[in-house]
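User: Modeling request: complex.
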Amino acid sequence: MSLPDDYLKYPKRGHGMDHDRYTWSQLHERPNVAWPNGARVALWVVTQLQWFPMDMKPAVPVPGGMARPYPDSWNYTLRDYGNRIGVFRLFKVLDKLGIKGSVAMNSALAEMVPYLVEQVNRRGWELIANGLDMGHPHHGDMDRDEEAALIRGVLETLRGLSGQPVRGWLSPIRSESMNTPDRVAAEGIDYICDWANDDMPYEFRTASGAIHNMPHAMEIDDQQVLITLRHTEQEYVDQLKDQFDCLYRESESKGGRIMAISLNPWVTGQAYRIKALEGALSYIMGHDGVWSATGSEILDAFKGQA
Amino acid sequence: MLREPGLYDYSPFDDRPKVTWPDGARVAFWVAPNIEFYELDPPLNPGRRAWAKPHPDVVPHSHRDYGNRAGFWRMMEAMAKFGVRGSVSLNVAMCQHHPEIIAACNELDWEFFSHGVYNTRYTYTMTEAEERAMMEDVIKTILDCTGQSTDGWLAPALSYTTNTFELLAEYGVKYTCDLFHDDQPQPVNTKSGRLISVPYSLEMNDTVVLSMMGKSSRHYTDILKANFDQLYEEGAENGQVMCIPLHPFLIGQPHRIGNFTEVLDYITSHDKVWVTTGREIAAHYYEHHYDNVVAALRTRREGGAS
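Assistant: Request completed. Predicted assembly structure:
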């Protein structure tokens, strides 16, 4: 048997990507970016406040979701620990170090616990939309109209409760359909955080014009490192420091870089992990030229020099 | 199926009534050994298989039996050395199978609470009448065999029905270990009676850390100490609970017992630690804090989310 013709002949087999969402571009060839006040590294800390419904039956697997027969008290209440206890440990550390945070929140959690939205507003932090809840990841087979309605509802809820414009979108588990970028752009979103392919923002094409993708942390997300890969707390700290050291070093000749840190309160908000996180963040904040900023502030500074 | 189980109200760590422990202690510290019997050839439950292999699954069965034959005695001696009484999460069939172990616990004035009949018989799919029959057997067996009332509950193998918590309150069980949402006791919403959760930490549980997350014994030691340090610090503001749930087949292994002994030495060497049992924590909380906390939760609920 020979190979079928379409195995070797893909019409999009050519220079660049096989889709037109963004332009093929290598990091090392781009012009240097300058951050405000000569900062070398923009520190973007995103805390994820999420709700894992007890009856969730997501269309695609959701790490951290219900994993035992119903009613799964184990997973439900351990995730909930983050929103009651862990989040306040994280915020206390960020406050102590003077870090300006960004918070990605499920709209269902914001409705159930508006107290958490108040905590974000009170600190002057940015609220990023994180979908409805962790039982509703977006996915390739999702109905187009259903997704449009879901996104509209999520943004209405978060904008209504917070009074913020809500310019950023992080899909639950960063999972998208082919339509997600178009639908969130149509609702006024300026940046998405889902694509894990760059260290810097880049222009992302949608049916409603260009938005940007922001380099939200994937490899050094606390859940990824400590839960999925089961590294130790010390290894997590080392990883954060190594990431920062490399970016800081590069910024000397390659222009401003972004250190994104993704935190889940049920992971790093545990009593036995919080000091490890504090140590890593103190190390980073101890350097000259670190600009703690929100996603929108970083994006606006980036766009300002294009 | 419920999206949100409604078993407790939202209570943020940074805005809740202060809890105190006897003699100004910052942390109520308790150790909960799971004294369990795993059947060689258990009945099949439609919700969950007991063993991965067709019966007999020799290694996991005999690994757990090691706890009763060898590990228990090592664990018990380590605890006795530092004056730590166990609060035993008991598969009550142990009263018939291995009364020698029950007698040894009784002699040290340890508490017994329910962990069902066998760890290989689950609560999933039980009717209300079936769950009642199981609970009645447990309560009677503990009373007959040890002279103690069943004040605490940890569902067998953490398996539940949607009736479980209502029935516990009805049968006069005072505290449940089945909710993992907090580091302090919390009122549980039931239609009749009173029930509270007492923190029984899965994050500190030897099975979770050593077996499921695959951590080394020395890393487990670091986790336990770091968790204690953080709670001890926070306990100066608001009293905390730290529980170490154990399984003698894991912690009683020769290569682990030394590390665990070191942890007990470390924790009990602190001044402001109340070394206690689940029953005593619950009794203190009911006497000094329950009414106050329930009133504060009601105010929060009626006054809106904050």
